[in-house]
Amino acid sequence: MQSFLAIQASGGMGLLAGAVLFIFLFGILYLVMILPQQRRQKKWHAMLDALKTGDKIVTSGGLRGTIVALKDDSVYLRVPPDNLRVEVTKASVTQVTTGEEEVKTKAAS
Asked: Residue 74 belongs to what domain range?
């Protein structure tokens, strides 16, 4: 009978240790994967909200152009060399390039 009680007591501690380990692993996962993704998402949304006419942007498809007009969920771009006017969704904008960045990339080439 005493051995049965000893087994039950140790089983309860094993369950508690497993729960603590699970919570610890979830905390590490949150810090390593979820939190940085949320920060990137907030930064990207802030960039999209700050878009204005005249900004030079790059889309996820690699299209580079200058914003000529904005709508609720889309952007109209002027794309060189023929100054084509293209409509793309705001969600496809990956980065806004400034004059300083273009000078750096040209100097590096």
From this structure: 52-108
